[in-house]
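fyi for ur records
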Amino acid sequence: MLRITDVLKTGKILISDGAWGTFLYQKGLKQGDCPDEWSLTHPADVEDVARSYIEAGADMIETNSFGASRQKLGFYGLGDRAADINEAAARLSRKAAGDKFVIASMGPSGELLMMGNVSADELYDSFREQAVALEKGGANAACIETMSDADEAVLAIRAVKEHTALEVIATFTFNKTEQNEYRTMMGLSPVDAAQTALAAGADIIGANCGNGIENMTEIVHQLREAFPKAFILIHANAGLPVIDTHGNTTFPETPEIMAAHIPALLNAGVNIIGGCCGTTPEHIRAIRKAVQSYNRITV
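which gave:
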């Protein structure tokens, strides 16, 4: 089976998908509902989200499983359905993807190891359960994303590598500090986070959420300088969220704004570009067009 890294070795820039949560809320997901359960209860809607990104030109799509660890699902009383939910999520994206890649989403557990509420063994087993089910459903890779804690990320990477044949994408979420530095919530810099992920066996590193595409370009520069041969993925927000007086959240970067930053991101050395919060199929379509234009200019 062709692997994502095999394609990247040819020099091709791959396009990933965009946000899922926004779509699900548009389709009727309510505050307090478990979005991951929709892979069982609303499969047609979930499949439609995945297909919309393939139709927009994505080379790979995620799965509706970001919060489908046993710990996260336990908040909804669904911990014992973890395997079923993850397998269903992967099958739906696999069906929509056709011959494109499925990069199965695995988010943080919602627990902090340092607080002692969960053990390392319990987290490892949870990530193992999730990864095995996602592979069974047809995923090509595990996208371990929105990580902030090095120890949790390592457990997730190891669980995937030791129990499946999935490639591993590991991305962390960074915010800019008052010192103008990028750090995760747990204080990791982009270089430290990537080094930890690569040492644990990650095939692809990067960043998602937390920043618009312009700030992501700075992060890619840091990663490329430190790891010249690494493959780098970026899932940028459509800008930083804006909350109005009614508590509604919007993201200010239009598809055209995001597309305008693509040349700088490519010059920095990114290999895979997609979106996170606030992005839509229109953003992905614009990103793909910008990448194609860049390639025509640089060839």
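The domain at 4-298 is CATH 3.20.20.330 (TIM Barrel). thats all i got for now
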